[in-house]
Amino acid sequence: MVAQLALQAPDTFAGLVFIAPATHPWPGGVNWYYDVAALPVVGAVFSHTIAPAVASLVASNGVDSVFAPEPAPDNYQQSIGLPLLFRPHSFLANARDVSRLKPEVEAAAPRYPQIDQPAAVITGDADTIVYPDIHSAGLVRDLPNAWRVDLAGAVHMPHHTRTDAVVREIEAVVAKTYPDHMRAANASETKNAPARL
User: Fold this and answer.
1) Distance between CA 170 and CA 157 in Å, rounded?
2) How many domains, in total, are found in the chain?
């Protein structure tokens, strides 16, 4: 999504942060249930009958697999409203989006060199959902002002499991994008800091 926004409205964004991005063509496709749910007629039937019935059986394992080998954050499923994903219309819409992802990135990837804003590409080096060697490496190769941050042992959700590192990279993008603002903010913080004895 970040790459698409940068391509469609480049003057809107001064800097970019990619977190575990899916940006480049990959071998294979997506999970079968996305393809089935995206089919005309069959997809609607699947999304209204099978998906909601099976969801309660597989949802916890699905969340666990996204975070594994790390634990999912406490109350993660509740905080994101996971059951809402399995409402028939929501499931169908998500499946259509996911099933179209690969063709979308195939079309967009050749244009990535046009994205010249400073860009942090943050990835977990243990991500098995979106492969860093394809997507993150591809972005750093294709974007002229991008840098890659591999978080050791992190998986697909580093913004939940390595929040401090993600925030540091967001700050780095802001510093590269607005260096005078960052200098002024740092000077103000130093000036207003309490005296230490």
Assistant:
1) 16
2) 1
